[in-house]
């Protein structure tokens, strides 16, 4: 009696779609478009210079009237009722057009293997933007989603794992398209926070090294500044003089974009020191 059996989704190696996905997506969209306004900003923001505030305000205000339901629908249409291993970049284009957003020049921050630290940095420097500080990055960050070719429901049991199942899955393709667009839209001086506690602070296989670096426009972006940060309490493994950064430097020189690099950039180092005030590297004398 087949018609009585619950619909069986295909089984994949990754975790399934995040429970309450739609509610979280819509809730985050409303928070971003309605509440991330200057008057609702927590007290730590109130001392920001007025000019920076203006840039941020005009940027966020342009999102006020975005229709979250429409954005959610465009998002769903990209992968619902499709084989989650055959999602294409084009599938996400209608969503990208609907929710496109520009970041002011000199304010873009990329990161690779430094997610938490980079976000602490842009949280304190509220005029700066990582991808996750833009609307679509914000709503999708940390979530998993996939559909199924035989059903109009999301698959909450399992989703493709990008290493074990397939690269062209609904989540990976989304981040690829979004990262590409984020890099294409960047202008002026851009920054990247890299992890010097790994043997290769820069990796060509990462999204930063494989997608973002290659989509910066040399006509718009004049300089890439890299900050190589060492975790407090771990021995440094890579630095600005290491070979992985030399690779990045040569890619940038071929792309005609000026490259600078600094180990343990002080504004970011201070954030690490807030958590580890007793560490010797955090004392005034070093
Ligand atoms: P990273 O290696 O720290 O990866 C960031 C996250 O993306 C990790 O959760 C990782 O598991 C996942 N990831 C990386 N490559 C993937 C792939 N091919 N398929 C599926 N998941 C993958 O750093 P990265 O790869 O350089 O990515 C960070 C940069 O790219 C940032 O500058 C950001 O703008 C963008 N990005 C953000 C996210 C996110 O989850 N918020 C994901 C991918 C890319």
Question: How do you describe this structure in short?
Answer:
By secondary structure, the chain is α/β, with parallel strands linked by helices. The chain has helices spanning 21-35, 50-61, 68-79, 93-98, 115-124, 135-140, 170-185, 207-212, 243-254, 266-275, and strands at 14-15, 109-112, 158-159, 188-195, 221-229, 258-263. The longest helix is centred in the middle third of the chain and has 16 residues, at 170-185.
Number of strands: 6
Q: List ligands, each type once.
A: nicotinamide-adenine-dinucleotide
Structural class of the helices, strands and pairings?
alpha/beta
Question: Runs with pLDDT <50, length 5+?
Answer: 38-54
Distance between the termini: 75 Å
Shape: globular
Describe the strand arrangement of the main beta sheet, using strand numbers: 2-4-5-6
Tell me the radius of gyration.
Answer: 21 Å
Q: What portion of the residues fall into strands of 2 or more residues?
A: 5-15%
What is the averaged pLDDT score? Answer: 90
Succession of helices and strands? EHHHHEHHEHEHEHEH
The profile of the biggest β sheet is:
4 strands, parallel
């Amino acid at each position: 009696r087949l018609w009585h059996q619950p619909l069986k989704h295909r089984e994949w190696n990754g975790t399934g779609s995040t429970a309450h996905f739609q509610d979280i997506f819509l809730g985050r969209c409303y928070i971003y478009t309605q509440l991330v306004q200057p008057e609702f900003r927590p007290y730590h923001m109130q001392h920001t210079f007025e000019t920076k505030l203006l840039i941020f305000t005009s940027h966020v205000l342009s999102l006020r009237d975005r229709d979250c339901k429409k954005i959610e629908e465009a998002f769903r249409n990209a992968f619902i009722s499709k084989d989650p291993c055959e999602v294409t970049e084009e599938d996400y284009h209608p969503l990208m057009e609907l929710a496109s957003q520009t970041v002011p020049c000199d304010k873009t921050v990329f990161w690779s293997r430094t997610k938490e630290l980079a976000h602490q940095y842009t949280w304190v420097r509220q005029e700066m933007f990582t991808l996750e500080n833009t609307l679509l990055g914000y709503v999708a960050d940390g979530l998993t989603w996939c559909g199924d070719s035989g059903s109009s429901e999301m698959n909450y049991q399992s989703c493709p794992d990008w290493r074990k199942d397939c690269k062209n899955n609904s989540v990976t393709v989304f981040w690829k398209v979004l990262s590409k667009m984020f890099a294409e839209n960047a202008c002026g001086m851009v920054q990247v926070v890299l992890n010097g506690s790994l043997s290769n602070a820069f990796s060509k296989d990462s999204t930063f090294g494989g997608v973002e670096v290659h989509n910066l426009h040399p006509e718009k972006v004049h300089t890439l500044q890299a900050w190589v940060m060492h975790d407090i309490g771990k021995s440094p493994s890579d630095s600005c003089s290491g070979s992985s950064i030399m690779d990045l430097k040569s890619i940038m020189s071929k792309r005609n974009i000026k490259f600078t690099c600094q180990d343990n950039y002080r504004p970011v180092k201070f954030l690490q020191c807030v958590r580890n005030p007793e560490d010797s590297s955090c004392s005034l004398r070093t």
